[in-house]
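Predicting structure from sequence has reshaped protein science. With that in mind, we have picked out one protein's residues alongside their backbone shape tokens:
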Amino acid sequence: MNIFFREQGVGTPIILIHGFCETHEIWDGFDKKLSNYGRVISIDLPGFGESPLQEGSLSIDFVAEMVLNWLKEEQIKDPVLVGHSLGGYVVLAMAAKDPEFCKKLVLFHSSVFADSEEKKANRDKVIDFVTKNGVEPFIQTFVPALFYNKAHQALARVRSISLKTPLATLVSYSKAMRDRLSREEFLANYLYPTLILAGDQDEIITMDLSKTMASISPKSIFFALPNTGHMGMIESESLAIAEISQFILS
């Protein structure tokens, strides 16, 4: 299984799965500090960074199966799965496929809900726009919307990472997110703990949506990161690490 990864630290495996138009590099610095609490493995999803895009139709379930199989090939046991945004969709699909393997989930600015009709239409608009205009014009407006502080010093770094996204990857994952299944019923019946980290200023996965999601399962732990948009690993690094490390140790 050709999945690129970077690892540091020892102990409990903590798998960091990046979001849309990101790579493992989005966790730079965050992963090093989190490695005080376990063996941190940050991956590139297929099509991003150094992991090749798979041929044929791509779905969230298909990507989840690839990552799940890769973890088992690497003989990683009892991982804590941390998924940012798109990464959270993948984590949920992994846990739905094999809940006994995936016993600790962290949904980092992510959601169990399927796309609304409005959101699906917006995905189609993105696909149409990038097909006609390329990746760069989309990224120039996409990245600032991820941050609460539009002048954050990390904006340039995140933009640089996002600009590496191949057109085929951007289109394929836009379709995959548009067509993904709801995981509401799964979360309601999931027997293991889920940490839900939300940004109180997140315009993509709103606080109201995150609170509704947390109410679905009595096993859910909800925490709001203050003055934070969609990039808690950057905008609230220390607080996010504190919450995740407490969740790992609990």
Summary: Residues 5-249 form a domain with the Rossmann fold fold (CATH 3.40.50.1820). The two ends are 32 Å apart (CA to CA).
